[in-house]
Amino acid sequence: MTKSGKAYLIGAGPGDPRLLTLRAAEVLGQADVVLVDDLVHPGVLAHARTRRIIHVGKRSQRRSFPQELATHTLLAYVRGGSIVARVKGGDPFVFGRGGEEALALAEARLPFEIIPGVTAAVGAAAYAGIPLTHRGVAASVAFVTGHREAGATQRIDADADTIVVYMCQRTIRDIAHELLERGKSPMTCVALVRGASWPTQEVFTGYLDELATLDDEWYAALDPELPTIAIIGAVASYADQLAWQDARPIPIASLRVPRLRVVAGGRR
Ligand code: SAH
User: Fold this and answer.
1) How far from each other are the two terminal CA atoms of the chain, in whole angstroms?
2) DSSP state at residue 1
3) How many A from CA of 168 to the centre of ligand 1?
């Protein structure tokens, strides 16, 4: 009798492997194959017993492993009878393309389970000390993508009290401009959180107009390996009071000088 396969779409959280759910750790221990995306901390994979760990990530510029191939590989292993742990950063259903993989599994009538993870917005907010829906300050929060297809005209949801912009490493200045043009106050508080929950976490706080005029040199020198998320709205100001990590937030206003000069005081 052939063993029947199953896929588990697993959210690994934003970085720190201790943020993994117990269910995710349990399934990793049972998996025959692990297919893993970029941005998953190696410590997460320590729960896997199998040595068949395949990296299927595509960092936006390298495009080493297209999504179609990742989905195809997942389906092929499940059809072949394997228990497959498909591990994604954050949560699989928040900008993780987990929906596409789940649909492909459903269409192929293959069994699957979705295991949620701490999505970057929630992880970054916690690790930066930003209460996303602080009572009396913010009653709504929007998770939006900062990714811009070439030539596409996208508008981001500017109506929510708190706007969390994923994938904004190269677009945050333009997005800040867009929000200003659409009437957001230049004094709207913002926080940029880079590598949330990683040992190299950096938090920058300031105002929307400062974000719109980020220093070119600093902007260009951003480490592309460290993921960036922006939290825009009054709640971002709490990072200065509620930062519980050793490093204090770095004022965006100080970034007009070349980055190297500010980093020493900013790192843990
Ligand atoms: N499924 C993931 C999101 C994948 S999109 C989730 O639910 O979190 C990748 C984007 O997530 C990055 O461009 C960045 O905006 C954000 N991100 C992921 N990990 C992060 C981290 N540790 N710190 C800050 N942003 C992070």
Assistant:
1) 55
2) -
3) 10
Is the CB of residue 95 below 6 angstroms from any atom belonging to ligand 1?
A: yes
Q: How confident is the model at residue 265 (pLDDT cuts 50, 70, 90)?
A: very low
Kind of pairing between the strands at 33-36 and 53-55: parallel
Residue nearest to atom 13 of ligand 1 (CA): 167
Does 28 score more than 90 pLDDT? yes
Tokens of 190: 């913002």
For residue 257, the model assigns a pLDDT of 53
CA of 60 to the centre of ligand 1 (A): 12
The greatest distance separating any two alpha carbons of the chain, rounded to the nearest whole angstrom, comes to 67
Residue nearest to atom 1 of ligand 1 (CA): 96
Q: Give the pLDDT confidence score for residue 253 in this predicted structure.
A: 86
The residues assigned a catalytic role are 37, 58
What is the pTM for the complete model shown? 0.91
Question: Helical H runs in 129-198?
Answer: 172-181
* Residue whose tokens read 């195809």: 72
